[in-house]
Amino acid sequence: MFASFLITFREGLEAFLLVGIILSCLSKLNARQYNRYVYYGVMAGVILSLAVAFVFQMLINEFDNELYQQYLTIVILLFAVGVLTYMVIWMQKQIKHMTFRLEEDISRMVTTGNLIGMVFLAFLAVMREGLETILFLSALMYSGNSFSLGGAMSGAVLGLAGSLTLVYTIFKGTSKISLKVLFKYSGLLLIIIAAGLFSSSINIMQSVNWLPVWLESIFDISWILDDRGNLGTFLRALFGYNSSPTLLQFVVWILYLSTFIFIWKKAYRKNINISSS
Description:
Layout: H1 2-28, H2 35-61, H3 66-89, H4 95-112, H5 115-141, H6 149-172, H7 179-207, H8 230-239, H9 247-276
Helix pairs in contact: 1-4, 1-5, 1-6, 1-7, 2-5, 3-5, 3-7, 7-8, 7-9
């Protein structure tokens, strides 16, 4: 539940912030009459995201063969890990520039009366985050961890509600919230989740003989914290915790975490230097 909450909170935050910036720009330009076109784009993005989620689920259910389902799960997991990593590390560098370009685009659309452009801009903001959310939640659900549909949906709804409330507070409230800090540490948690998904993909690839096992269990701490117990199940679903990992699983998990936490630190340190200069 917490993993789905974090994912939809982060994705919802990006989508709602972009829509909020568009509406704010229209307000500054005294062009609020165009707000409804932004809402049309938002609705279209939500509808298409839900339609893609339905089709995606139908396609997965068509695979009766368990082996093919495992192949598909591997592809989903690896793709989700790649997109998550890209979103957290590289997209962070573009946030300031994206906001500036967005304001320029809105001003140009208002001047030229480009209504279709406004609809498409809002549609694109919502659809992109919606498709990423579908991918990440699917990866969590098919990672082989104890991840219930009910818990996933509850967490997702709470995440969206939380991000919408936060964005509303930012644009309408008087209190200042540090988005840099929020994106920084939510990004770190997403990297840890991605490491768990990557580890799960290694486990499945070993089970279908795509990768060697080498050493079946390098240690067993199930007597301390069993991954089939209540807390262990939660940690397994959230971070890919395994009380008795194979050698390759553990090495890949350590390498991924150490590499991308280092890159994450470097990216945010660079952002701080840029903002202070």
